[in-house]
Design a protein that fits this description.
The protein is an alpha/beta fold and 234 residues long. It has helices at 20-38, 58-64, 77-91, 114-123, 142-151, 170-176, 186-197, 221-229; strands spanning 6-13, 44-52, 68-72, 99-103, 108-109, 128-135, 166-169, 201-210. It has an eight-stranded mixed β-sheet, with helices on both faces.
Length: 234
């Protein structure tokens, strides 16, 4: 499988003025690291933020950090991701099979090799990339930190699906129909389809930093896991 020639990073955001700058800046660092390592063979890279019904300065901050910003009415995370991908595919000048869609969240910060790691897996034949996440311990209670460390051994690739660290080849995304317009679990639904269809899924133990907040933007999800399930030992 040929290595991607274009990478689009998609970020849905709902009133994330406190964290969107950190998120976009982390992607810029990962882009610079990619260019340093790959030089002339580096793919083109773009960052697209979908400001989903934002009432704060999210869009302005994202633009100030160099992202392409699409502002919408409140539509929910699944639809926001889908709009971001559609914009990325429209802007890509290469075949969908050579376009890589890297997804993260506005409250997350990726590591400097995040893009490089996905490109390595894609060049080796992966159609989907599943990365791991670590909550910001500053947002957790001592009991939550202890519970998280007790249940997350470093270096173990668990294969959980996190929209904050998820990549997919453009051709695979189009073949399975893309993100559903749902408010929760759009990432899990997206990955289930290529797995069922026999696409190659790469699982990484490398973690990115994500918010440890427990007041959800949508009911359920990772915030519920931290607030309820983690301490129950699930």
């Amino acid at each position: 499988m040929s290595a991607p020639q274009h990478v689009a990073v998609i970020i849905p955001a709902r009133d994330e003025e406190e964290l969107i700058g950190r998120s976009v800046a982390s992607i810029a660092r990962a882009e610079r690291a990619t260019r340093r390592q790959l030089g002339k063979t580096a793919p083109t890279i773009s960052t697209i933020v979908v400001a989903d019904g934002c009432t704060d300065a999210t869009a302005a901050i994202a633009r100030r950090h160099g992202a392409i910003v699409i502002e919408t009415e409140p539509i929910g995370v699944g639809a926001a991701r889908a709009i971001g991908v559609a914009e990325a595919m429209a802007r890509s000048e290469v075949d969908p099979a050579l376009t890589w869609l890297a997804n993260t969240d506005a409250d997350s910060a990726v590591h400097s090799r995040w893009i490089l790691e996905q490109l390595d897996h894609a060049a080796s034949g992966a159609d989907v990339y599943l990365g791991d996440v670590r909550p910001d311990f500053a947002d957790l209670s001592p009991a939550q930190r202890e519970a998280w460390l007790a249940t997350h051994e470093p270096g173990i690739a668990r294969g959980h699906v996190h929209g904050a660290s998820l990549g997919i080849r453009g051709s695979a995304y189009l073949a399975i129909g893309g993100f559903g317009a749902i408010g929760l679990g759009e990432d899990v639904e997206l990955v289930a389809a290529p797995r069922a269809a026999g696409y190659t899924v790469a699982v990484s133990a490398t973690e990115i930093l994500t918010s440890g907040r427990q007041v959800a933007r949508a009911v359920g999800g990772y915030s519920r896991y931290l607030a309820v399930d983690l301490l129950e030992g699930r």
